[in-house]
Specification:
The chain is mainly alpha-helical. It has three helices and no strands. This is Aspartyl/glutamyl-tRNA (Asn/Gln) amidotransferase subunit B.
Length: about 80
């Protein structure tokens, strides 16, 4: 009983002497440029003339019934937001 000395593995000593190297595949720079351009276009897209949309009447009724539409749309303080 008591503490026993740790067993030394011969294979483990051999593995610790090895140097592991990860090699990544080369990346095509033209593909990277093309992808970065596409991502930039997607992230910076803003419609020129966005149109306000009106939700269907049944959704407005649902929102009123459940208290999700508690603000008055005719409030003069909100007119600048709803233009």
């Amino acid at each position: 009983m008591g503490n026993q000395p740790a067993k030394q593995d011969k294979d483990r000593d051999k593995e610790s002497d090895l140097i592991r190297v990860r090699i990544r595949p080369e990346i095509d720079q033209d593909l990277v440029k093309c992808l970065s351009r596409d991502v930039k276009q997607l992230c910076t897209f803003v419609p020129k003339k966005p149109h306000a949309i009106q939700p269907p009447d049944h959704e407005i009724e649902y929102m009123r019934l459940h208290g999700l539409l508690d603000l008055d749309l005719d409030d003069p303080d909100l007119t600048h937001l709803l233009k």
